[in-house]
UniProtKB/TrEMBL annotation, chain A:
Keywords assigned: Coiled coil, Kinase, Transferase
Region described as Disordered: spans on this chain: 276-300
Transmembrane segments: none
UniProt family annotation: Belongs to the protein kinase superfamily. STE Ser/Thr protein kinase family. STE20 subfamily.
Coiled-coil portions: 58-85
Gene Ontology MF term list: ATP binding; protein kinase activity; protein serine/threonine kinase activator activity
Domain Protein kinase, chain residue ranges per copy: 30-337
Protein name from the UniProt record: STE20-related kinase adapter protein alpha
Keyword Coiled coil on entry: yes
InterPro entries linked: Kinase-like_dom_sf, Prot_kinase_dom, STRAD_A/B-like
UniProtKB/TrEMBL annotation, chain B:
Family: Belongs to the protein kinase superfamily. CAMK Ser/Thr protein kinase family. LKB1 subfamily.
Gene Ontology MF: a single term: ATP binding
Top-rank EC class of the record's enzyme: transferase
Keywords: Apoptosis, ATP-binding, Cell cycle, Cytoplasm, DNA damage, Kinase, Magnesium, Manganese, Metal-binding, Nucleotide-binding, Nucleus, Phosphoprotein, Serine/threonine-protein kinase, Transferase
Protein name: Serine/threonine-protein kinase STK11
UniProt entry tagged with the keyword Cytoplasm: yes
EC number(s) given by UniProt: 2.7.11.1
Biased composition (Acidic residues): 15-24
Length: 390, 465
C-alpha cells in the first residue's frame, strides 16, 4: 500500500529543510504570544509563538517537569519517537529544549487546531461528512506509516488530530505509542496497558482494555479510528457520559458505537436500521444511543443521513474481532474516501467554513492591536480551547 | 435419617469464595434453613447411607456481587499467602488490572514478626521503582475490619506455577535465560538500593501479561543501615531450600548480597534442571546437606551454564560470584537459541487467557438491576468434578507449594476430599484459621474453595428434571 498522502503539498513551513536547521534550542529565538490550549491535563500548555529569525508563527508546547511525574516518561518517548518519524500526516518537531523547569517542544503551527476544537467551537453536532472523509483518509496514511514502522499509536482521537492551514490532517499524541518490535522480533501481539491513559479509555479497543494473554496489535488503532469517526460525526465522543467500567463491559459484550443519523436514531428505523448497523450489538445499544444523542427527536441528528459508505466504514473499523478489522492500508481504498472526488467536494478549509485558520496574516493583523485585544481576538478564533494535543 | 430426602435432587449454593468470608457479608439464600447434617456426619451411626449420584447434586452458581474497595472493583482470588489472600481488582478509573494483597491484622498477629514484616515490606516497596520489582501502587486500610489492602501491579502467574505445569518442572534454556537476566536486573537494582531480598525463589518471581519478571514478596527483605560499612546481616528468614551454607550452618553474621546470589543460583539450578541442588527429609537434613556445600549438577547441563552454577553455588561467600561476575559470564552474555517450545503460564481456573475476573461482577452491576431477568445458573456435582480435574491452584504470596515446605510440613497428612466439603459449614471457619503456611494447606484450601457449599437443601423447582 502506498503511503502517498492525499495532500502532500507544502506545509506551513515550506522549504522545511533550510528552516529546520535554523530552529535552534535557544529560548531567546522564540517569542511566546498567547496560550492556545492545554494538553495532558495541566502538565503541558501549547502557546502560539513567533520564531523571531524568520518571523513565522509556530506552536510551542511547554511541559512542566515538576508536574509531569507519571507523564514524564511518555513525554520523553514522544520526543524520541517524533524525531524518528517523518511523514506529512504525522506531527513533526522542529526543536526540543529545556527552559527552566519546562521541556519545550517547537512544532509547526496547525492553523485549524485540533478536530476536538473544531467540534467544540463550531460543529457541536459533528463535522460535515466530506470533511471527515478528508481527515480520516489522512489519518489512515499516518497510521499505515506508523504501523509499518512497528508502532501502535494507542491514542487515536479527535483531539490528537490537528489540521493545518492547507487542510491537511496530522496525527499527534505519539506519547502513548508502543513498540511492536521487542528484542529485534516483531511481536504478533503486545500486552502492555498504556500508562496514564485514563483520558483515552473511551477510544481504546475492547481487546486492549481486556488485558488478557491474547493481547492486541495494530488493529487496536483501527478500532480507535472507528470511535474517532463516530466522534467526528456525532460531535461528542461515544461513551462520553458512561462510567469507565460500563464502557468496558459494553465494549467487551460487543457493543460498538454508531454514527448518529436518521437511520440509527429514529424510532421507525430503530428495529431494522439499528440491527443492520450493528449485528453484534445487543441491549446496550438503546441506552447508549439515547445518552449519546442529546438532540435526538427532531434535532439535526435525527434528520440528517450519512452515506452508507460512511456507515460501512465505521462498522468495519469497530468490528469486535480484531482479525476481521481491515488494516490501515486496506481501509485507504475504502469507497468512503472516494466520496469527496465523486461529489466534487471543495478542499477541507472551505468545508470548515466559517472557521478562520490562524495564519500569519491573521496573527499579524492582531499584532497591531494591544495585548488584551489580541487574546480576546484569539479566543474568538476558537483556539483557546483545551484540547490541543500535539 | 434423611433417606427420604434423597429422592429429589439437592440444591447447593456454590461459591467461588469461602463461605464464611466476612468480606462477602450479606445473607445467604438458604441460611435460615437447617443444614442437612447427614452428608458428612461420619460420627453418627448411619445404618444405611443412601447413595446420591453426583449428577443429582445441583449447585446454583453464586451471583457475582460487585464490591468496591476504594476505587477498586474486586475480582476473584489469585492466590493465597501466609498473610492473607491475593485477589484481582480493577482500577475503576484507569481500568487497569491490579492485584490486591489483603492482610488481616488478626492473622498477622499470629505469625512471628508478621506485622513487622508487613510494615517493612510496605516501606520498602513504596520507595522502589524498577521494571523487575513488583510495584506497590496503593495502600488502603479498613480499621473497622482490621484489614489492610496492598494494591500492586497485576501478574498473571509465577515461575513456580509454570514449572509445576510442565512434566519435567523446568524451562527450556532460552526461556530460563530470559527470566534469569531479568532477575539479575531486578536484583542489581535492589542491591543498589541497599536492599537484600533474602527470599529469592521461583515462587517469588511473578510474570506480567507482557512476560516481564517481577521480584515480589519483600516480606523478609532487609534494608541495610545507611551508615553500615558493608552488607553484613544477622537474620535469615527465607525458604530453607534456598538458604546458603552460612545460614544453614548457623553463622552469627553473613554477607547479605551473597545470600541473594546463592538463592538465585539455586533458582537457576531449579528452573533449568527441574531439581534442587540440596534436599533432605527434614529441615535438619536439608541444612546439613547445604552446610556441606556438596551437590551435583546433572550431566545434561553443559559448560558455560555449569560453570555459572558452580560460581553462584560456591560454599565460601567470598569466592561466590558477585553480580558483576555473573553479568560478565559467557552464559549470561549469550542468549541460548530458541529451540524448544516456550512454557506458557498455566490457565487460571480453566481460563487460558487469564481474562479479567472482575468482568462478571461488573456485568452484574451494570446489567442485572432487575433480578428477575437474570436466570440463575445451575450445574451438577458431576460437572463440577469434571472441571476440577483440569484445575491448577495458583498462589501469589510466599507460601508456594514446593518440595521443601512439603518436607517440612508440620501438619499431618492432607485431609481427604470428603472432609473438605464441609457441608454444614460451622467448622469451615476453623480450618480457615488454623491451616496456615504449609503447602498442604494451601493446596487443600484451593481445592476446598472450589467445593465450598453454603448449605444443602431440597430443591423444589427441580423435582422432576
Amino acid at each position: 500500500m502506498s503511503s502517498m498522502p492525499h495532500n502532500s503539498s507544502s506545509q506551513p513551513s515550506s522549504g522545511q529543510k533550510d528552516v529546520e536547521c535554523t530552529f535552534g534550542p535557544e529560548p531567546g529565538l522564540y517569542q511566546t504570544m498567547s496560550m492556545l490550549g492545554q494538553c495532558c491535563g495541566d502538565v503541558g500548555q501549547v502557546y502560539l509563538a513567533i520564531f523571531k529569525p524568520l518571523d513565522i508563527p509556530i506552536a510551542l508546547k511547554k511541559f512542566n517537569v515538576d508536574k509531569a511525574k507519571d507523564e514524564m516518561e511518555n513525554i520523553q518517548n514522544e520526543i524520541i519517537l517524533t524525531r524518528q518519524l517523518r511523514h506529512p500526516n504525522v506531527v513533526t518537531m522542529n526543536a526540543a529544549f529545556v527552559m527552566e523547569s519546562h521541556i519545550c517542544v517547537v512544532s509547526p503551527l496547525m492553523a485549524f487546531g485540533s478536530c476536538r476544537d473544531l467540534l467544540n467551537r463550531h460543529f457541536s453536532d459533528g463535522l460535515p461528512e466530506l470533511a471527515i472523509a478528508y481527515i480520516l483518509k489522512d489519518i489512515l496514511y499516518a497510521l499505515d506509516y506508523i504501523h509499518k514502522k512497528g508502532y501502535i499509536h494507542r491514542a487515536v482521537r479527535a483531539s490528537h488530530i490537528l489540521v493545518n492551514e492547507n487542510g491537511q490532517a496530522v496525527l499527534s499524541g505519539l506519547r502513548y505509542a508502543c513498540k511492536v518490535v521487542k528484542h529485534g522480533r516483531w511481536q504478533r501481539n503486545v500486552h502492555s496497558f498504556p500508562p496514564t491513559t485514563a483520558r483515552n479509555l473511551n477510544w481504546l479497543s475492547p481487546e486492549l482494555l481486556e488485558q488478557n494473554l491474547q493481547g492486541y496489535n495494530e488493529k487496536s488503532d483501527i478500532y480507535s479510528l472507528g470511535v474517532t469517526a463516530c466522534e467526528l460525526a456525532n460531535g461528542m465522543a461515544p461513551f462520553q457520559d458512561h462510567p469507565p467500567t460500563l464502557m468496558l463491559t459494553e465494549k467487551v459484550r460487543g457493543f460498538a458505537p454508531v454514527l448518529l443519523d436518521c437511520t440509527t436514531t429514529c424510532p421507525q428505523f430503530a428495529d431494522t436500521g439499528q440491527e443492520n448497523q450493528n449485528a453484534q450489538a445487543d441491549s446496550g445499544v438503546g441506552d447508549s444511543v439515547e445518552s449519546n444523542g442529546n438532540s435526538l427527536e427532531g434535532g439535526p441528528l435525527s434528520t440528517r443521513r450519512f452515506t452508507d459508505y460512511f456507515h460501512r466504514f465505521s462498522e468495519l473499523c469497530l468490528l469486535r474481532d480484531p482479525e476481521l478489522r481491515p488494516t490501515a492500508g486496506q481501509l485507504i481504498d475504502h469507497s468512503f474516501f472516494k466520496l469527496p472526488r465523486r461529489m466534487n467536494a471543495p478542499p477541507l478549509p472551505q468545508l470548515l467554513h466559517p472557521v478562520i485558520p490562524l495564519t500569519k496574516e491573521v496573527i499579524a493583523c492582531q499584532n497591531d492591536q494591544d495585548f488584551f485585544t489580541v487574546t480576546e481576538r484569539l479566543s474568538d478564533l476558537d483556539l483557546n480551547s483545551c484540547d490541543w494535543e500535539f | 435419617m434423611g433417606s427420604e430426602r434423597t429422592e429429589e435432587p439437592i440444591l447447593i449454593t456454590y461459591s467461588d469464595e469461602e463461605a464464611l468470608d466476612e468480606e462477602e457479608g450479606g445473607s445467604r439464600n438458604f441460611d435460615d434453613l437447617e443444614p442437612v447434617s447427614w452428608i458428612n456426619d461420619e460420627d453418627t451411626d448411619v445404618p444405611f447411607f443412601h447413595r446420591v449420584d453426583s449428577d443429582q447434586i445441583i449447585y446454583e452458581a453464586k451471583k457475582k456481587r460487585c464490591k468496591m474497595i476504594g476505587k477498586y472493583v474486586m475480582g476473584d482470588l489469585l492466590g493465597e499467602g501466609s498473610y492473607g489472600k491475593v485477589k484481582e481488582v480493577l482500577d475503576s478509573e484507569t481500568l487497569c488490572r491490579r492485584a490486591v494483597k489483603i492482610l488481616k491484622k488478626r492473622k498477622l498477629r499470629r505469625i512471628p514478626n508478621g506485622e513487622q514484616n508487613v510494615q517493612r515490606e510496605i516501606t520498602l516497596l513504596k520507595k522502589l521503582c524498577h521494571r523487575n520489582v513488583i510495584g506497590l501502587l496503593d495502600v488502603l486500610v479498613n480499621d473497622e475490619k482490621e484489614k489492610m489492602y496492598l494494591v500492586m501491579e497485576f501478574c498473571v502467574g509465577g515461575l513456580q506455577d509454570m514449572l509445576e505445569s510442565t512434566p519435567q518442572k523446568r524451562f527450556p534454556f532460552w526461556q530460563a535465560h530470559g527470566y534469569f537476566c531479568q532477575l539479575m536486573d531486578g536484583l542489581q537494582y535492589l542491591h543498589s538500593q541497599r536492599i537484600i531480598h533474602k527470599d529469592i525463589k521461583p515462587g517469588n518471581l511473578l510474570l506480567t501479561l507482557s512476560g516481564i519478571l517481577k521480584i515480589s514478596d519483600l516480606g523478609v527483605a532487609e534494608a541495610l543501615d545507611f551508615f553500615a560499612e558493608d552488607d553484613t546481616c544477622f537474620t535469615g528468614q527465607g525458604s530453607p531450600a534456598f538458604q546458603p551454607p552460612e545460614i544453614a550452618n548457623g553463622h552469627e553474621k553473613f554477607l547479605g548480597f551473597k545470600v541473594d546470589i546463592w538463592s538465585s543460583g539455586v533458582t537457576l539450578y531449579n528452573i533449568t534442571t527441574g531439581l534442587y541442588p540440596f534436599e533432605g527429609d527434614n529441615i535438619f537434613r536439608l541444612f546439613e546437606n547445604i552446610g556441606k556445600g556438596e551437590y551435583t549438577i546433572p550431566d545434561e547441563i553443559e559448560n558455560p551454564l555449569r560453570d555459572l552454577l558452580h560460581g553462584m553455588l560456591q560454599k565460601d561467600p567470598i569466592k561466590r560470584f558477585t553480580l558483576q561476575q555473573i553479568r560478565q559470564h559467557p552464559w549470561f552474555l549469550r542468549k541460548p537459541p530458541q529451540t524448544l517450545e516456550e512454557v506458557p503460564v498455566p490457565p487460571l481456573r480453566g481460563d487460558e487467557l487469564h481474562n479479567m475476573t472482575v468482568l462478571p461482577y461488573l456485568m452484574d452491576y451494570h446489567y442485572a438491576e432487575d433480578p428477575a431477568s437474570v436466570q440463575p445458573q445451575y450445574y451438577t456435582e458431576h460437572e463440577r468434578n469434571a472441571w476440577a480435574e483440569g484445575q491448577n491452584p495458583q498462589c501469589y504470596g510466599s507460601e508456594w507449594q514446593e518440595p521443601v515446605s512439603n518436607m517440612l510440613s508440620k501438619e499431618g497428612s492432607p485431609k481427604k476430599y470428603p472432609d473438605e466439603l464441609n457441608y454444614g459449614s460451622p467448622d469451615r471457619h476453623q480450618t480457615e484459621e488454623s491451616g496456615e503456611s504449609t503447602s498442604d494447606s494451601s493446596k487443600r484450601k484451593s481445592k476446598r474453595k472450589t467445593t465450598s457449599c453454603i448449605s444443602v437443601k431440597k430443591f423444589p423447582p427441580c423435582k422432576q428434571s
